[in-house]
């Protein structure tokens, strides 16, 4: 065992280097790479700020606040990734900040779909009494036997609560994790049963699945109604941010913990994997920021007002036409 340890570069067993150490070891390619990625993160933030000004001026309240929250997901993740790229010791904090922000975005996207309908009351007028399919991902996509539920005020409250709990509890667990880390009780690489990481992370994963379920249910129910508002590509961008910021990060971290990502002094395997993830996220979030700008920075005509007596009028017209047809035959 001693011979094996002697063959490992001591730098591969060290913690993340300081920012000044990163700058000193950069070669020409590294300088160009870091400069381009920093420029992308900066442009993402500037595009978002410009979009906020447009939305604040053109979109009525309270929808403009919700749109700004949803649009901020990609720029915030890109900015946090850029900070983590330059300051590797802060990667845990930047990742947790991005995850906490996206937890709020999950709830805000559900609210956005409701506000595109005109708000809670207008949604209940349009869809009240209709059936809503709940056999959808990520919880019950295979459970086709689940019965549909009726859209009521109570159903809407439960859907909103299912997403809101993630926004609140994710922030709470982030604070708890940081407090435990300062006391030496929280370590992402410690997967022992006695460690806190093995208990906190799976629980947060369950909360994530529970929060995503109401959003998927609402999207399935409203995707036809909100087609004119480009809700399908908006939902696709929201899902893409989710996959890249959560699933991609988890996969790379697992590979790094298993040693599948080679050590490159002064970066250990885990730190190098985290830096690779930050680089990918900056590029991906920059592209998503540009796409979401095309989707949200434009004017959409509001949905036509819902007439509660429209179906009755149609039935009356049918009855009148049938009566006239019977008179003609007589």
Automatic annotation (TrEMBL):
Q: Name one Pfam family in it.
A: Solute_trans_a
Transmembrane spans? 31-56, 68-87, 163-182, 202-223, 235-256, 276-296
* Record keywords, A-Z: Membrane, Transmembrane, Transmembrane helix
The compartments listed are: Membrane
The cross-references to InterPro entries, in alphabetical order and at most eight, read: Ostalpha/TMEM184C
The membrane topology noted for this protein in its Swiss-Prot or TrEMBL record is: Multi-pass membrane protein
Query: In which broad location class does this protein mainly occur, judging by the first location in its UniProt entry?
Result: membrane
A single GO cellular-component term from the record reads: membrane
**What is this protein called in UniProt?**
Organic solute transporter subunit alpha
Q: What is the lineage of its organism?
A: Eukaryota, Metazoa, Chordata, Craniata, Vertebrata
């Amino acid at each position: 065992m001693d011979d094996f340890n002697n063959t490992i570069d001591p730098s591969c067993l060290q913690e993340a280097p300081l920012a000044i150490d990163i700058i000193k070891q950069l070669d020409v390619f590294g300088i160009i790479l870091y400069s381009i990625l920093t420029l992308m993160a900066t442009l993402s933030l500037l595009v978002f700020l410009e979009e906020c000004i447009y939305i604040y001026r053109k979109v009525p309240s309270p929808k403009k606040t919700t749109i700004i929250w949803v649009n901020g997901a990609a720029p915030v993740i890109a900015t946090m990734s850029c900070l983590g790229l330059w300051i590797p010791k802060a990667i845990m904090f930047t990742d947790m900040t991005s995850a906490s922000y996206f937890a709020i975005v999950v709830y805000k996207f559900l609210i956005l779909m409701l506000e595109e309908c005109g708000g809670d009351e207008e949604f209940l007028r349009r869809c009240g009494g209709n059936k809503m399919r709940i056999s959808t991902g990520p919880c019950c996509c295979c459970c086709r036997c689940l019965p549909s539920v009726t859209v009521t005020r109570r159903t809407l409250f439960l859907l909103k609560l299912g997403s809101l709990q993630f926004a609140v509890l994710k922030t709470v667990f982030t604070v708890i994790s940081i407090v435990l880390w300062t006391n030496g009780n929280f370590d992402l690489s410690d997967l022992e049963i006695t460690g806190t990481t093995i208990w906190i992370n799976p629980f947060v994963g369950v909360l994530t699945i529970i929060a995503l379920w109401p959003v998927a249910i609402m999207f399935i129910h409203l995707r036809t109604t909100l087609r004119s508002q480009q809700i399908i590509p908006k939902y696709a961008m929201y899902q893409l941010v989710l996959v890249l910021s959560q699933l991609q990060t988890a996969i790379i971290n697992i590979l790094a913990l298993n040693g599948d990502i080679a050590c490159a002094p002064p970066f250990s395997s885990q730190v190098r994997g985290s830096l690779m993830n930050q680089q990918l996220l900056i590029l991906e979030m920059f592209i998503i920021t540009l796409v979401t700008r095309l989707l949200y920075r434009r004017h959409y005509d509001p949905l036509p007002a819902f007439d509660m007596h429209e179906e009755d009028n149609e039935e009356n017209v049918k009855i009148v036409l049938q009566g006239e047809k019977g008179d003609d035959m007589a």
